[in-house]
Write a structure and sequence with these properties.
Shape: globular
Region (Disordered): 41-62
CATH class: Mainly Beta
Protein name: Polysaccharide lyase 14 domain-containing protein
InterPro entries: Polysacc_lyase_14
Largest sheet: 9 strands, antiparallel
Domain Polysaccharide lyase: 127-303
CATH architecture: Sandwich
Length: 310
């Protein structure tokens, strides 16, 4: 919890010694705190908000946020109710597939669910070229991975480009995207990065399938994504990293990293920055082999955090 210590019931006799001690302690802490990117950043920089002291406006646009789902069991049947839970502006929330269950965000994919059955929305964030986010995810027991699908939270660069609209990234300089997919058409299911960017090859996002992290059902994983956009339209100096670790592990496994990507060829910094995050959880690909055939299947999310980085 984010704690705001209150000085109460202090007498004139002991107020100033206590205040001086607090100032000394705070100064020492500030001198020693290191906010550089490392595995401990996520556990120390942002804690769960205190409802009595959290002043963030509902449906606001935030550059940093922790989102837990400790609201009790409830369906999320509207964009407004989703915004109240996320404490952040949301666009395009898909109703009917999401609920809070056992303090987790549960997304249920119907049997034979294609790209039209699942979650696809955007969270508005403060316009910035550098972000990091992470989230916990678990596939239900005996989950039918089928061929694969989009998973969890990711970045929209500029206007955001997905859905096979490669020409918007390559020719029209509208931006790109950095998301996560799962694949199940192998001996062991796995996660991997899925991106659209200025210099991409092919008609769909580059999937970098040789960069992967093996997973299984009924086990919690933490996915962490880091992004820095290219500093000008012509420079391929953008950065991206995808990391994953299993619950209980201290260190992440680096799945993919690059420091030479041109996310957008737009001369406008705003069209190269991140202004929204995707929440994409659905099966597909567009053909039937991507569809699940073993009844409704659920994926659980928790502990979403995002923050700007240096």
């Amino acid at each position: 919890m984010r704690n705001f210590n209150k000085l109460s019931d202090l007498t004139k006799r002991n107020f100033f010694p206590v205040l001086i001690s607090l100032i000394s302690f705070t100064s020492i802490g500030c001198q020693s705190e290191d906010l550089s990117l490392d595995d401990n950043m996520e556990d120390t920089l942002y804690n769960e908000p205190d409802p009595e002291n959290d002043t963030t406006t509902k449906s606001s646009i935030n550059d940093s946020r922790w989102v837990g789902f400790n609201t009790g069991n409830t369906s999320i049947n509207s964009e407004t109710s989703a915004e109240n839970i996320f404490d952040n502006k949301i666009s395009g929330w898909d109703t009917g597939v999401a609920k809070i269950e056992s303090n987790k965000l549960k997304i249920t994919l119907p049997e034979r669910a294609g790209t039209s059955n699942g979650m696809e929305c955007r969270l508005d964030v403060t316009d910035n070229p550098k972000y990091q986010l992470y989230f916990d995810v678990k596939f239900q027991d005996n989950f039918d991975f089928s061929r694969g699908g989009k998973l969890g939270f990711g970045f929209a660069i500029g206007d955001g480009v997905t859905g096979g609209r490669w020409e918007e990234a390559v020719n029209e300089n509208k931006g790109g995207s950095f998301r996560v997919m799962w694949r199940g058409d192998s001996a062991e299911p796995y996660l991997f990065p899925y991106v659209y960017y200025k210099d991409m090859q092919g008609f769909n996002g580059n999937d970098f399938k040789h960069k992967k992290f093996n997973i299984t059902d009924n086990r919690t994983y933490r996915v962490r994504l880091t992004i820095k956009t290219n500093t000008s339209a012509s420079k391929a100096n953008g950065y991206a990293k995808m990391e994953v670790k299993q619950s209980g592990e201290s260190n992440y496994t680096k799945v993919w990293e690059t420091s030479s990507i041109r996310w957008s060829g737009n001369s406008s910094a705003s069209k190269r920055n991140i202004k929204t995050f995707y929440f994409s959880t659905f099966r597909g690909g567009k053909t039937n082999e991507w569809d699940g055939n073993n009844g409704s299947q659920s994926i659980y999310f928790d502990n979403l955090k995002w923050y700007q980085i240096d």
